[in-house]
Write a structure and sequence with these properties.
By secondary structure, the protein is α+β, with helices and mostly antiparallel strands. Helices cover about 40% and strands about 20% of the residues. It contains 8 helices and 8 strands, in the order αβααβαβββαβββααα. It has helices spanning about 10-15, 30, 40-50, 60-65, 90-105, 170-180, 190-220, 220-245, and strands spanning about 20-25, 50-60, 70, 75, 80-85, 110-115, 120-130, 140-150. A 6-stranded mixed β-sheet has the order 1-2-5-6-7-8, sandwiched between helices. It has a two-stranded antiparallel ribbon with strand order 3-4. The radius of gyration is 20 Å and the shape is globular. The termini are far apart.
């Protein structure tokens, strides 16, 4: 009998074949164990902020028919798919920190679906490598991290059969690239790390535009409003450029 609630959708979002699916609860203590000695505050945060966690899938060559990957920096023979419910009253910064800690807690790429207390779900992915200074530790160093609301991702865009199946690392990087662009990456030339950087740049610009527009409405004199409106137009142009580089031309993405 499964102990995973029916609301869990990570395996479906990836289109996992049945033999790649799992249904196991993950003890919070296991996630926190890697940090108890050197970073006890991080261990406490994981224990406090994660209400429950489950392993819902494992991507392996034999379960998804994609070859393993190995080079001088990393070996990728399996990718766990985790789902976690975050506890109430967990701040946005703590949610980001928790996701990063989950990725760091394992010496392998991880797919994490984080369910927020308000019902929203974020897909968290990280480009990472095993520590070069201490390769004996079973943890990862994060090179780049992205968390994307799943509600904005195109239906079936993350299905494994639509991703690069050259090898396990290529598959994971293509998942990162595709998710960072809400399922509509601009093209195959867009690399995973670049997609993450563009996504972060887009988020920053859109946040800045909201602030400028708010300040323009509150401006006390006409010159201030003019200056802020000029700044808003510049930001919209920059946003359009970033979106054009990140997203394909199909579909619409409204400007803030």
């Amino acid at each position: 009998m499964s102990d995973i609630p029916h609301e869990y959708t990570g395996a479906d979002l990836l289109g996992l074949p049945e033999k790649a699916r799992q249904q196991h609860r993950v003890a919070k203590k296991m996630l926190a164990a890697q940090f108890e000695e050197q970073a006890p505050a991080d261990a406490r945060l994981l224990t406090k902020a994660v209400a429950s966690a489950h392993l819902v899938g494992i991507l392996r060559p034999e379960t998804i028919q994609v070859p393993r990957y190995q080079d001088g920096e990393r070996t990728v023979v399996e990718v766990p798919v985790l789902e976690a419910f975050l506890a109430e009253k967990t701040s946005a910064s703590d949610r980001t920190r928790v996701a990063e800690l989950v990725h760091r807690s394992m010496a392998k790429p991880v797919v994490l679906f984080a369910h927020m207390p308000d019902g929203a779900t974020a897909l968290s992915l990280a480009l990472s490598h095993v520590s070069r200074t201490d390769p004996t530790r079973s943890t990862s160093v994060i090179d780049a991290h992205v968390a994307v609301p799943t509600g904005g991702i195109e239906p079936s865009a993350l299905h494994l059969d639509r991703l690069d199946r050259t090898d396990m690392w290529a598959l994971y990087r293509d998942l990162v690239r595709t998710a960072a662009a809400d399922g509509r990456p601009a093209g195959t030339a867009l690399r995973a790390a670049d997609a993450i950087a563009l996504r972060r740049r887009l988020t920053d610009l859109e946040s800045e535009l909201i602030t400028v527009m708010r300040d323009a409405k509150r401006a006390r004199n006409q010159q201030q409003r003019i200056d802020l409106n000029v700044a808003a137009r510049t930001l919209r142009t920059q946003i359009g450029h970033v979106r054009g580089t990140l997203y394909s031309a199909d579909g619409d993405h409204d400007t803030a």
